Please model this.
Amino acid sequence: MLLTHEGRSPSVHPTAYVAPTATLCGDVRVGAGCRVLFGAVLTAEGGPVELGEGCIVMENAVLRGTRRDPLALGRQVLVGPTSCLTGCRVEDEVFLATGSRVFNGVRIGTRSEARINGIVHLRTVLTADSTVPIGWVAVGDPAEILPPGGHERIWAIQEPLDFPDTVYGVARGTPATERMSRQAAWYAAHLDDRPAG
Model:
């Protein structure tokens, strides 16, 4: 399904394939030879989503661009099933396996990999040819790649990156009711979405 959001409609190259149950919403650009499979969601939440030539977005993956952090995939990037990417820049020939999570402000270098359930945390920079092992966490600039049990070290790097401000635009400690009302207001922009074309 192609939806117009905030006056912008998706653009799909004629050689690309978008499955009938995939959803592209707003300023989404799908390049030549791309494949967007069943249940995938690509949504421009104030910032564009752009897929370079030959990318594959597999089943039920979610890709979201934001005002602060647009989402851009280079050429020949594979996004595995159920992966979730928000506001990141991914260079060419990157492999993001099933269940990978890539957060706002991330930059992933050419030929890097995040293996099954790998996490690339907020504002992290992975240099070219990096690997995040199965279930591990990359955090920081430059990235430290840590096991999931390394919570204290992960938190020491991640806390000053200020997840609440970067993602929600609020200070740490803001009451959940305020965060949720802001989120609800933000997503209310979809009330006027319409089928494209």
In short: The mean pLDDT is 93. Helices lie at 151-158, 163-168, 176-187. The longest strand covers residues 41-45.
